[in-house]
Structure formats: C-alpha cells, structure tokens
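Lecture 7 notes: from sequence to structure.
We start with the chain below.
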Amino acid sequence: MKKNNRSFNVVFASLLLFIPAGVATAANDGTELLPYTTDGTLSEVTAARLTTSDTYNLVTGSGRYSATTAAIEIGGATATNAHLTVSSGGDVVASYSSGTGGSVYVGYGTPGTASYGCSNSLTITGSGSTVTTGYGPNYIGFYGSSNTLSIESAGSFSGSGTNVQVTIGNGDSTSSSYGNSNAVTVTGLGSTLSIVNAALNAMITVGNYGSSNSMTISDSGAVTSNVFLIGGGSNTSSTLGTASSNHVTVTGSGSSLTVSSATVTTNNFGSISVGRMGRGNYMEVLSGADVSSRNFYVGSYFQGSSNTMGNNNYAKLSGSGSTLTVTSILKVGFTSSASVSNSDNYLEIDDGALVKVGSSSSAATVTVISGNYIELANGVLAIYSNVTSSLSTMLEGKVKTWDGDSFESVALTSLNYAYCSSTAEVDEFISKYDLSSYDYTAADLVGYTLITGGSAISVPEPSTYALFGGVGALGLALYRRRSAKIVA
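Predicted structure tokens for the same chain:
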C-alpha cells in the first residue's frame, strides 16, 4: 500500500471514478489514495460517478468528498453492486445549489433496461458521519431496483435545499419493471434522515410508481420531513407502473417519524399519506414508536374516475406506547370531485396503541369515507373536545372491532366512548374498559373524547369478593367430607 503523509485519510477501495479532465482519479486496484487539497480534504470535483460494478468504496475519518456542480451517483450508468460507506466522521457533500445538481443517486437506472442501476448501496455509520445533499432530488433506486441506504450508529443524511426531496423507488408509469424493492433503514440512537426546508415543501416518497419499496426506523432512529408519501403514482391497469405494496415500519420506543409544516393544507404540507395514489401500501407503528404530523391520510387519492388504484392501503398501530399524533386532519378513504370513492382502506389501533387527533390550539377533523374503516382492538382513538354528539355522523358504520377471530363492523352503540374533562375521568375510562396494556399519561388526554371497542370490565365490590370466598370455602368443606366417606 502506498503511503500518504497527510494527516487525513480518505480511501476509495476498488473504485473507478469518472471525473472531468484535469482532476486526478484513483487506480481501480485499491492501491492509490485520492488526491487531497492542502487543507486535507479531497479535491472538489464537478461530478462523481461510481460506475464500475462490484466495487467497495470508503470515505472515513476527517475526509471530505464534495461534488460541486452535479450529482453524486453510486451505481450510475450500467453499474450494479457498487457500494459507498461513509464512516468514522467522514463527510460527503452534494453542494450544488441550483438546477438539477446537488443530488445523490443510489442506483441510477435507465428506462428500457430494468437491469441497470440495481443492487447498489450507501451506508452512513458512526457519529459525525454525514451525507449532505443540496438543491435537487435524491433517489434510492432511480428506475433501478434492490438499492439500499443504511443510516446507523448516529450517522446522518440531510437536505434543506429549495427543491430537496428523497424518493425511494422511482419507477415508470408505463411499466412495472422499474424502481422496485429499494430500502432505507435508519437505526440507532442519533441516526437521522432529515429532509426539511424553509419553503416547507421538502418531501420523502416511498414508492413513486415503484412497488415493494420500504423504510424502517428502529432503535431510536429519527426521520423528519415536511411531506411524507407512501405509494405515489398509479395506473388503471395493473400491468403498468403502479405504486403498490410500499411500506414504512417505525418500531421501538424512541423511534420517530415527524412531519411538520406551518402551512395548513397547501400541497399536503405537513401531511403523511399512506397510499397517495397506489394500492396495498401500508405503515406500521410498533412497540412504543411515535409518529406525528399535521394531517394523516390513508388511501388519500386515486387517478381520474377510477377508484381501483386507491384501495387496500392501511396504517396499523400496535403495542403499548405506540402513538400517532395528528394535529388537524385524520382521513380514511377518498371521494373525488365526481363523487367516486375508493374502499377498503383502514386505520387499525391495537394492543394499547393511541391515535390522538387535534389539540387545544388546533381543531380536530376526523373523516371516514363509506367503505373504509377504523379498526379497534384494545386501542384508543382520542378526538379533541366533546364530540360525543357528533359520533353518529362521524363513525356510524365505519368502525370495526375484534371479535376474537376477525374485525367485524359494529354499530356505534357497541363502542365505548366518553368525554374526559379530568385526569380522574381518563383513569376511570382506561380502567373500566380494561386498557391496562395502554401506557398513558392521564393529563395528556384531558379534554378529549376517548373511543375504544370491547366490553366494560365489571369490578366486584369488596362484599362480593367476601361472598365468593365464602362460597369457595363451603365447596371445599363439602368436597373433603365426601372424600372422607368414600375412604371409610
């Protein structure tokens, strides 16, 4: 290995880096160090394309790698299985501030050749390890499939430019062969993916015409954005590109997805949409994880006059402490201007989970379109203010509860609900309806109408316990006397 006596060490192993003339490149045998500037950082380049297959590349330590006028591509052109790892405080910057530059692509494919731009990866690991994007869009799978972005052990990926966005699985509206099975993982305390800008239109999309793309947030990982879509783009024919079976999982206490915007509803700012135009897309919030947004939609849109592509999307919350906090609008299902509705979208609240809508500073709006449902199984739906008199309009025929085998539609009279104006009333509701698995703070639910399924638990009075005890003792005595006679 050749030695470099500079104090910073940035290594790209087995790399062919295509850069304009006049900028030095590394050999492809892993024996050369890339050139440094006098301050120890890599020379800035106009573009960076990791376009050789089966390569493993590294930016580590205090090294900085910056592309100033165009995108950084990992697995560009015909490449597959190209990998970049940023570790131990390494820094990668796509710094261009206008036009189409300032972007990061992991898997840059080509319409017409589904095998291009596949199975590439970007890994950001360790405290201080960062990738920062500039002005434009970023893609994990741009027409390519099976590409990954992994952010772990306090690594970070961030962008705040005017048009910044991250798309996981960008497919093609004319074919189902592109932009499938790409994945992003954000795991570990301090690991972050932040796509937020001053214009409040920064967006993360999981599946744009692509299918089976995913995001997993776990072990106290955190994701923030201004807009968050799961399953965007659809067609009336299943043989064409359709955003289907894309999914997001947020799991574990401390793990979070936060979508916020000061703008109320313009262009879905501050919204999470599960099934923006696709079908069979879903979000799961599990094991104490937290999701929050201004608005939350399940099955939020469909294309043209056809409603078949906006169906069968769902969001599920399960486990004590798992929480969805919606500041303003919760909506399940969609009706077009032509009064055509989609169906079979649902929000499921299980096993001590909580969905909380509205607050003292923001009115709650809950809408469930006919044919779509809220499903309750030992979970709580909390709607701010006393809405008990409005529930028949809001929820009648639109709620299912668990009967031990499946979710079945029930009348409003089968639900348990109450407006709670004090902590004592919150405690009473939780106890009465056997929500013991629910990890809650009573003060946070004061002023809400609480709704759950199932039957109330009758707690016997102390005198009843005494009666049960007397009957039990009498039965035991009679049993012993009968046994003694048999022995005699």
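Points to note: Confidence is low (pLDDT under 50) at residues 1-47, 457-488. The helical segments are 391-395, 423-432, 462-487.
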